[in-house]
Fold this sequence. Notes:
This protein is an alpha+beta fold and 174 residues long. It is 26% helix and 25% strand. The strands form two sheets. A five-stranded antiparallel sheet has the order 1-2-3-4-5, covered by helices on one side. A two-stranded antiparallel ribbon has the order 6-7. β2 and β3 (76-83) form a beta hairpin. The longest helix is centred in the C-terminal third of the chain and has 16 residues, at 114-129. The N and C termini lie far apart (57 Å). Mean pLDDT is 85; it is low at 45-54.
Amino acid sequence: VDDGDRIRIANTAARRQLSLPDPVIGCDAAAVLPCGEELLQLSSQDDAETDMHAASSAVDHRTDGGAAQLRPHPSGLELFLEADGSERHFIVNTEPAPTETSVEGQLLVFRDVTTQRDQELEFQAVIEHTTDVVTIVDPEGRISYVSPSVESELAYTQLELVGREIADLLYPDD
Length: 174
């Protein structure tokens, strides 16, 4: 995307997976990219690092009948696309356009993580329905997740445990 917010380069995969119009080169990026206006705001060079996690959860209804939504993600932004009953997930990052392109502007990188996201949801479904207690502890020793089975197995609620130090729950000799 050049400094005038026009698309200057778009590879075949981006055109296909984002359902971009043909031709797309020279088009206003805000008008043709899913959540384009918000992506352009977040990709400005001055604010790229600080605002990447400030995406709203507003849904962008697209002209192709689908919907798009940006969500904060630890690796940048997650773009969620829904069209024709299928869902696609992309992690979006920005960086300055490579000098060899002679384009002054920003490079928007859309990494398709749909398969990974589907696997995460399957894993989450298994964890949420197992009778085993599954706990995730952060590097500082605080519980960041505990499965719902903790209530029936250990008589704690999830709310009681998330945020607590794991060491507080262990017998000191253990």
